[in-house]
Each structure stands twice: as structure tokens, then as C-alpha cells.
Amino acid sequence: MKRKRIIGISSGGGHLAELIKAIPASYEKDMIYVTFRNGHTQNTLKNKKRYFIIDPHISKIKYMINFIQSFFLFIKIRPKVIISSGAGIAIPLNIIGSVFNSKIIFIESGARIYNPSKTGIFLYKHADLFIIQYKSLLTYFPKAKIGSL
């Protein structure tokens, strides 16, 4: 059976916890996690396939570095699916995946009850499947599917 090559990308902390929780156990062998390196992310992903890239936060220079790292990582892995729960670290890889026809799945953070995230707003138009956890966000994302973790 051919491997699916799935990338799960998010920032650390709650975004990463939500991403890991969203992945069915049956897909875990196909998952490659991408996030930034710190003590928490290294410990959380210590027994998983993973890569670390720079967290751009709000720096334009770091976004360019993140884009380059994401591009080379995309070429290396050639994922069929990219799943993200945000935040900004995920934007470049999702855009690259969209251009190269990977399926893009975005999960809006459970912390977003009434207002959308900037990453969600940006990636909504690129996502093949956009998941929200609260009906109140349908105002911003009318084609989203409601799901919960």
C-alpha cells in the first residue's frame, strides 16, 4: 500500500495539541509534523516524524525564510495532504501546497468562538476543507464544515 504523505503543520502549544488530537490514529504512520523548535515541541513530537522550521511571527524577513524552508520541505516530502491548525507558521507551506495541488485542510482554533483568526481568514480561500468548531464563525466562513475536537 502506498503511503499517503501527510504533513501536519502548526505553531506550538495549543495549536499543536489540537492538530495532534485531530489526526486519526490510523493516519499517524503517514504523518509528518512541522512546527518550530522549542523545548515543548521537541518533547511533544519526540516519538513522531517531524521537521522544524522558523516561526515567522510578524517578521517579513522570517516569513521569507519560512517560505524557503517550506518550499524545500515540500519538494522533499511531496505531501498529498496538508493539515493545519494555524498559526502564521503554516501560511507559506499551505500556499505552496495549494499551488502544487496538495489537498489543504485547515482547522480553525477552538479558541476562536466569535472572531476568526488572521491565518484562517488568509487560508480560507485556499483550503479544500475548512473546519470550524463553532456555528458563530459561519458568518466569516460560510462554506466551512462544523466539527469539534
Question: How would you portray this structure in words?
Answer:
With 149 residues, this protein is α/β, with parallel strands linked by helices. The chain has one domain: Glycogen Phosphorylase B (Rossmann fold), CATH 3.40.50.2000. The chain has helices at residues 14-22, 39-44, 60-77, 91-99, 118-123; strands at residues 6-10, 31-35, 50-52, 81-86, 103-107, 129-132, 145-146. Helix 3 packs across helix 4. It is globular, with a radius of gyration of 14 Å. The chain starts with 5 loop residues before the first strand and ends with a strand.
Helical proportion, percent range: 25-40%
User: Distance between termini?
Assistant: 29 Å
- Oligomerization status of the protein chains: single chain
Relative strand content: 15-25%
> According to CATH, what is the topology?
Rossmann fold
Series of H and E elements? EHEHEHEHEHEE
Structural class: alpha/beta
Which sequence of strands runs across the widest sheet?
3-2-1-4-5-6-7
Second-tier CATH architecture: 3-Layer(aba) Sandwich
Rg over C-alpha atoms, rounded to the nearest angstrom = 14 Å
- Please give the domain count: 1
Give the helix tally.
5
Which homologous superfamily in CATH is the superfamily? Glycogen Phosphorylase B
Instruction: Give the low-confidence spans.
Output: none
Biggest sheet: strands, sense, closure? 7 strands, parallel
Average pLDDT reading: 93
CATH class: Alpha Beta
How many extended strands?
Answer: 7
Q: What would you call the shape?
A: globular
